[in-house]
Design brief:
Number of strands: 9
Largest sheet: 5 strands, mixed
Shape: globular
Number of helices: 28
Distance between the termini: 67 Å
Low-confidence stretches: none
Amino acid sequence: MGATQNVKRATPRELWILTVLLAPYLGILIWNSARMGITMDEPTRLLGGYLYWLNLPDHPPQDQPPLLGIVTGWAPKLLRIPLFRDHLIWRQQWKDHVASYILDRLPGETIDQLFFLARLGVIPFGIFTALLMWHWSRQLLSRTAALLVVTTFVLLPEVRAHGALITSDMMTTFAYLLAAYRAWRYWLEPSLRQAAWLGLAAGFAVLAKLSLLIVPPLAACVVIARMLLDRRARRRGPAALLLVTVLCWLVVTAAYKFDTRRFTWAELQDIERQREYSPALVRLMAPLTVIPTPRELQLGVRLLGGYYRDGSWTYFFGKIYDHGHWAYYPACLALKEPIGFQLLVVIGTVAIFRRWQRIRSISDAAFILVPALIYLGFAMQSPTQLGIRLILPVVGCLVLVAGYGIDWLLQSKRGRLVVAGALAFTFISTARIFPHDMAYFNEWAGGPERGWRYLTDSNIDWGHLWPELKKYMVKHGIKQVRAFPFGYDKLHRYFQPGEVELEPSPWTPEKLDTKTYVPKPGIYAVSASLLSGQYYPPVFRTYLHYFRQREPDDRVGYGMFIYFVPDRAQADHL
């Protein structure tokens, strides 16, 4: 069915079903916020939020827009976490080192409370995303299909795994979908009121993540295109464009506390000379020499350009690439999404094109498909390839595409069986590894047991498995393990002295006398994200070859591998 400008009033039955769907999802997120260990990025992000609330200058890297800090930085301020500003490490001005130093000096109970409270600030964005999908789907599809869209969303493992972490991934998904929805609403009704909503949504998107700097230009393109294609929109088009621009600017500068400045021509020339951005894009930045923009945002833009220029090591299908691989994120969608969901997306895509003439206008599906393709296209060009979490906005759009397939299938008895089967298969496939949703790989990849051979990092172990290792040791009566950890979580939260011995790693290569680790007899816990050598200097890529070339004896949370290394006499006997 086509879109309508009038939002259908929700019935009590719909609201009751929606509550039943979202209550378990909310419960899982709250449980995860207390259960999961600290992931790699969380200490740095939380410190940035704390400094935002204290009105203190941020430490590099300044790649964190304010929204995450606004919703999480209150927690360390409430608990009065010390910053140790007189210590030398503070003056080194590197945020991850400072954050790690602070956590080393906090009691485990304080760290538990700190991260639980801060994660509570992120949780609402998962709920907001589900509600936005439901609201939009009800205007595009049938009421039943809209509820099944929410069902599909909450069944996806990545939205459960990353919905309670101090990262911008879920709020970026919400912000991107909100901007797409407001652009669609403006397209249907090109009024100044809708332009105001679009400008606010575009500004909000910029506050979520630097990658969403693409949203304001896209919003302007929507207004201009509508003005060119519709005579009725031309009269108010210039005013609408100005309103979108001004409101977007006000939202962004207000969140950055109006600490603004103008780019200089010398800086733009330096950006071009440093090859941070293409010459054509630098020329498009010329208005920034006249329009003041937030100082911290400018630093973030330059950091983002440096990331694109320099690249980062990416592990992909058994190889390490210095500047990423174009197929990385399509592979994430192929191997990390449940097959039942993939089936619905394919059917939804077919349904969109089969029903093209029946959809009231091209805008209905275009404002879902085009944003997904744009974001995926930019991501495929990015050398920062750290997991499916970085393309959650694409996944959000694909859920709505699946909604078209659901709506089409519901029109026949056989189709309803397909929907039921796809959702049931998605539930069964993901439930078997619950609560270790982060490590989910589908059956194409051979499940989470085999997934690490294709993708690592936040796709399987993001440093969050220390509490699971503690439970494993207690369950099996293990008194000591040797560990190769990943991330910034702190052992004193879980273990007594001597229970975990950290093995020497190439993080400090000057302290090593070998390029390949030779294990002593004992029990080892090795992060799956380290086996590839992705994060080690190139000469140490084979450092963990002993563990990589053999199957683990056991697994903790699918992302930390357990190896029993016997002494030589035992090995000969075996």
